[in-house]
Amino acid sequence: MKAFGNQNLAIIFISAVFVLVFSQTLKAQQQDVPEPLFINFSIIAPYIPTFHGRDPFKPLDNLTRSPQLTLSELDYHGVIRLGDSWTALFTWRGNPIVRYTLKDRLLLDGNGRVIDGVVGDISASKVVVTQGDQKIVYPR
């Protein structure tokens, strides 16, 4: 009878160790099963609105518009040579941090956008900038 009791005790001990070791992995596998509520859940929007005109999510102050600039607001700083072309440097009188360049007969702002209605020419002795009827000549 003692031998039968020792075998039962050994089987119970091995079973307890097995349950303790593998219970954590069994719990993790049960957590990965998806819930039946989200099996047929669609991620596509039921309605996609169409916009006509201005984008309602874009702020009003970010609209792209041509900067309004007159030639009298420009301060001339000089001419530099970059490769084969000449570039004239200007700043705005209202804020000297705002810079403009005259290159290839076009006046460009600091972001590389062309200022509409302003053309210019750089020669050996002068820089000429024209906007409509207004024409300003800067000596080099």
Description:
With 140 residues, this protein is of the alpha+beta class. The chain folds into two domains: 2-38; 70-139. It is 21% helix and 33% strand. The protein is built from one helix and seven strands; from the N terminus they run αβββββββ. It has one helix at residues 2-31, and strands at 74-82, 85-92, 99-103, 106-108, 114-122, 126-131, 134-139. The chain has a seven-stranded antiparallel β-sheet with strand order 1-2-3-4-5-6-7, with no helix packed on it. Strand 4 and strand 5 form a beta hairpin. The relative contact order is 0.10. The mean pLDDT is 79.
Task: For the structure shown, list the relevant keywords.
elongated, 21% helix, single chain, 140 residues, alpha+beta, seven-stranded antiparallel beta sheet, 33% strand
How much of the residues is beta strand, in percent? 25-35%
| Dominant shape | elongated
Average residue-wise pLDDT: 79
Query: Which strand order spans the largest sheet, edge to edge or round the barrel?
Result: 1-2-3-4-5-6-7
Individual helix count: 1
- N/C terminus separation: 118 Å
Classify the oligomer. single chain
The unreliable regions are none
Number of strands: 7
